[in-house]
Amino acid sequence: MKPGSRVLYLGAASGTTVSHVSDIVGPDGVVYAVEFSHRSGRDLLNVAKHRTNIVPIIEDARHPHKYRMLVGKFPLKANQPSGMVDCIFADVAQPDQSRIVGVNAEYYLKNAGHAVISIKASCIDSVAAPEVVFAKEVDTLRKLQFTPREQVTLEPFERGHAMVTAQYRYSCTRTFPFIETLYIELQRSRKPKNSPISIAFVYNRIHFYVSQ
């Protein structure tokens, strides 16, 4: 996160930490703050009244399609696709937190964007050792197309807590698997290309745009 960044904050609660993120991104950035609890949401709305770069969203982060009309409706940065964010900050304290981050990333996180995840071991598995829980969550992130970058425990300030940062890589073959299949078939057959726009050209163009 840096000045001008667009951040999707999952688990915004009453907006205390969201306000710090708001300070980091500054007036040129925006924080889409998602909170499920209506009670905490009221406090979040009050915080947003005094911080114009916070967009409060009272909704369940498990269903990102429900707030697709809100994310991206803030003035856009130059050359940034509508609806895409630079970073997801997750503090939802749910057993399926990594999955929640993954599904939101599919909707809103730009390619090579980042995620910052607060992992509370006891909220995921109250029996297993925190180190085991952290390792399992990191492995889940890898399966969701994230590359873990750093892991920091919050000892001695918070027991059983860790912060994990990861980078998102939305592969072209995952998004357009049929293009990959056609490209492989074209390479195998080596038949003349009848179309002026070859399958290889289409594949390369899609790969270029997705990798931006």
UniProtKB/TrEMBL annotation:
<keyword id="KW-0694">RNA-binding</keyword>
<keyword id="KW-0808">Transferase</keyword>
<dbReference type="GO" id="GO:0031428">
    <property type="term" value="C:box C/D methylation guide snoRNP complex"/>
</dbReference>
<dbReference type="GO" id="GO:0000494">
    <property type="term" value="P:box C/D sno(s)RNA 3'-end processing"/>
</dbReference>
<dbReference type="GO" id="GO:0008649">
    <property type="term" value="F:rRNA methyltransferase activity"/>
</dbReference>
<protein>
    <recommendedName>
        <fullName>rRNA 2'-O-methyltransferase fibrillarin</fullName>
    </recommendedName>
</protein>
<dbReference type="InterPro" id="IPR020813">
    <property type="entry name" value="Fibrillarin_CS"/>
</dbReference>
<comment type="similarity">
    <text>Belongs to the methyltransferase superfamily. Fibrillarin family.</text>
</comment>
<dbReference type="Pfam" id="PF01269">
    <property type="entry name" value="Fibrillarin"/>
</dbReference>
<keyword id="KW-0698">rRNA processing</keyword>
<dbReference type="GO" id="GO:0032040">
    <property type="term" value="C:small-subunit processome"/>
</dbReference>
<dbReference type="InterPro" id="IPR000692">
    <property type="entry name" value="Fibrillarin"/>
</dbReference>
<dbReference type="GO" id="GO:1990259">
    <property type="term" value="F:histone H2AQ104 methyltransferase activity"/>
</dbReference>
<dbReference type="InterPro" id="IPR029063">
    <property type="entry name" value="SAM-dependent_MTases_sf"/>
</dbReference>
<keyword id="KW-0489">Methyltransferase</keyword>
<dbReference type="GO" id="GO:0003723">
    <property type="term" value="F:RNA binding"/>
</dbReference>
